[in-house]
Amino acid sequence: MMQVVTRRRTPAASCGTLSAKQGSVEMRKITFAVYNPPKEGLPYLAAIIAPNGAVAAVAYQTAAEAEIHNLKIAMETARGVE
Question: Using alpha carbons only, how large is the chain's radius of gyration in Å?
Answer without folding.
Answer: 13
